Amino acid sequence: MSREEFGACIEACYKCAAACDRCAAACLQEDDVKTMARCIATDADCAEICRTAAALMGRSSEFAQQACKLCAQICKACAEECAKHKAQHCQDCAQACTRCADECGKMAA
Question: How many CA atoms lie within 13 A of 70 on its CB side?
Fold first, then answer.
């Protein structure tokens, strides 16, 4: 596949990574940071795999499809974790992760 064919997924990955970064940073400012530990950890994992998957797609790497499969799994886990929290940054992150999981799922198929 060419980079153009990956366009929507690359965009979703970068938007998700940015949302995860914002969420983790905001979680660190919450009064009870300990309750946000899993959210912060999944945000960090999700942002990392999203950037990696986007980079592999951007280079039309032979491993892009595999990266997208893993990215979809991690995005789903992050969306589920963030959805548990009422904070707007968590809800926004959950939405971005769900969209990215959907796009990566299509690319991995």
Answer: 15
